[in-house]
Structures are given as C-alpha cells and as structure tokens.
Amino acid sequence: MAIAKAERLMNLALCLMNTRRPLSKKELRESVEAYREAWQQGSEDAFNRMFERDKDDLRELGLVIDVDENALDGEIGYLARRDRNRLPEIALDAEEAAALTLAARVWQQAKMSGAASGALQKLRAAGVPFSEDAEHSALQPRIPAREVAFEPLLVAARDRRPVSFEYRKAGAAVPEQRSVEPWALECWRGHWYLAGWDRDREAARVFRLGRITGKVRSRAGRFTGTVPEHVDVRAVVAAFAGEGATAVATVRVRRDAGFPLRTKALNTRRVDEAWDELEIPYGHGLGAQLAEFGPDLVVLGPDDLRADVIDRLRAVAGLAPEGQPA
After folding, report:
1. Rounded distance, CA 89 to CA 107, Å?
2. How far is 138 from 125, CA to CA, in rounded Å?
3. Which fold has domain 5-85?
4. Which whole-number Å values give the CA distances from 17 to 13, 58, 212, in the listed order?
5. In this predicted model, what pLDDT tens digit does every residue of 263-316 receive, in sequence order?
6. 1: Cβ–Cβ under 8 A, 6 or more apart, which residues?
7. CATH classification of 150-237 is 2.30.30, yes or no?
8. N or C: fewer beta carbons within 10 Å in the chain?
9. pLDDT of 188-244, one tens digit each?
10. Can you tell me the distance from the alpha carbon of 200 to that of 205, in angstroms, rounded to the nearest whole number?
11. pLDDT above 70 covers what percent of the chain?
C-alpha cells in the first residue's frame, strides 16, 4: 500500500513538472493510472478525494504547485514550475561529506544500503567532495536490523499509519494482540525498540521488535493519540531496564550466566563455586528482564521484585500466580 502511494505521488509530480502549461484534473486523471482506476471503479468523488490528498502530500514534501483558475476555459489548472522547484546548491565541507559517507554505510540491509548508495551518487554528481579515505576507512559502523518487523514499522512510522501485531511480553507464555500508533524506532544496546501509542491501554508504550511475532499489519485511519515533538526511546527503555534507578536489588547468579547484569552491577560477591551475588539498579520493568535468565538467577530482594519474577516464571510454566488456585 505504501509503495503504491509513493508511485502515485511520483507520477503526479512528474506530470506537474514535465508540462509547459497547467493541467486540469481531468487530464491528470487520464495520465495517472491509479487515478483512472479510482474513477472507473469508484466515482468522481473518490478520485477527487485521492487527488486532493496527494496534492497536499506533495506540498508537505516541498513541491511548489501553482494553481491557475482561468487557465483552461474556466477550469482550474495545476503546474509545478521547475524554476520554483529546483534544489539550492549543495555545499558540504570534507568533514561533513565524510560523516555522510559513514552514515550511508551504517545499514547492512540491501534495501537500506541501496537507497543510501543512490543518495551518495546524487551528491557526487552535485559536486560534493567525497574523499577516498572516507569511503575506505577502517571504521565500519553497523546497525543491524534483522527483525522482520523492522521495515514495515519504519514505513508505518514514516507514513503515520496505525499497525497491529502479536507481542510476547517477557515472561509471558503466549503473545497477545496489540494495536499501536508507531512514533519512532531506535536501536539501544543491540536491540531495536518501537515507541508509540497503545490504543488498547490508552498510553505510550515501548516494544522490543524481537518480541513481535507474526506479521505487522497496517490499519486504516488516523492517529488518535498526540504524537510528541520528540520521542526519546532510549530514555524510556533505560527506565524500564532500571537505568538511573535509585533502588537496589540483590540477586544470585550462576557463575557462567548473567553477563548483561554483571556489566551494571554495583557490587559483586562470590558466594561459592557455583554462584555470585550481585547488587544491581532496580527500576520499573526489571522483573521482566530477570525472568529471562530462568533457573540461572534467584532474586533475594526486595520482596516485590522477587514476587514479580516468580509470577512471570509460573506464567511461562502454565501455572497460576502464587497465592491463587491453579
């Protein structure tokens, strides 16, 4: 759906920019296949709504569209003059060009790398000074995005389109359906996270892409929640992971396990040949992280964290929470 719309917008822009006189809506309808199909299968109103949305989208993207109300014997004509839609001269110094080169090489996925390479080629054609040293540097930045959900969520966040997917929370036995208005994606400590508005819970939420199961489905309609001007995904994830927390939790970890916890331990004490005792920052969501270590970790305190982890492990095992009948 996103690809079809992008193709339609491109065709409309080409029509408006490659004509010497204003074109009427009827002429544009006959020139753009998607418009012709909408008119034949639907109605004049369906075509008019599609055309008006596309025209507004092109203007938001920066295309200047002139409207001449008396160009075609009383019919309104549309034209995108090339002299008004020409990009200004691009001027980058060597350091800025080197930074762009490194940024373009970040993506490992074929689709991303192809788009980045094409952008660099256009900048070279415009005379931007890319040096050989920048392109063949020993520095090889990489941001992996292996999750299947990455690309559809990236497109949905860009197009402001709601989505739905099945999501398995940490410690949960089965995934559950979530309906989300995606805001932004960000990589933090090797994992991709999505921040957005959870429609069912009517609150902002962060989702780890690796826990999304099945297909991400695009939904019709507009966003219902207010999109913040700045979405700091890392700060939210860090808070859920206990970063910056003022409380402290005490856990016992097997000697050959729990390495992510050891990196942020405030204190570490050897108990015996099999176990170490760690003091770690305690913040909201830490229980979900600790439950992932299963039998390799035991929570000593505080009591509410211990109860949370036990309940999560019992849920995975298909048992009722402590204190409730099975």
Report:
1. 27
2. 25
3. Arc Repressor Mutant, subunit A (1.10.10)
4. 6, 12, 42
5. 888 899 999 999 999 999 887 667 878 888 889 999 999 998 999 899 888 887
6. 218
7. yes
8. C
9. 767 788 988 999 888 888 898 988 998 999 988 888 888 887 777 766 666 555 455
10. 11
11. 71
**Per-domain boundaries in the chain:** 5-85, 89-143, 150-237, 248-317
CA 17 to CA 85: how far, in whole Å? 9
List the structure tokens of 213.
């199961």
Name every residue whose Cβ is closer than 8 Å to that of residue 91 and which is 6 or more positions away in sequence. none
Dump strand ranges (E) for 189-262.
191-198, 203-208, 212-218, 247-254
- SS3 category, 75: strand
Q: Which of 77, 57, 59 is nearest to 67 (CA)?
A: 77
d(CA 326, CA 202): 31
Rounded mean pLDDT, 74-89:
78
In which band, very low, low, confident or very high, does the pLDDT at 90 lie, cut at 50, 70 and 90?
Answer: low
Convert the pLDDT of each residue in 62-74 to its tens digit. Answer: 888 888 877 666 7
Beta carbons of 78 and 64 less than 8 angstroms apart? no
Residue whose pair of structure tokens reads 């930074």 in the numeric block: 99
Q: How far is CA 24 from CA 72, 79, 185, in A?
A: 7, 9, 40
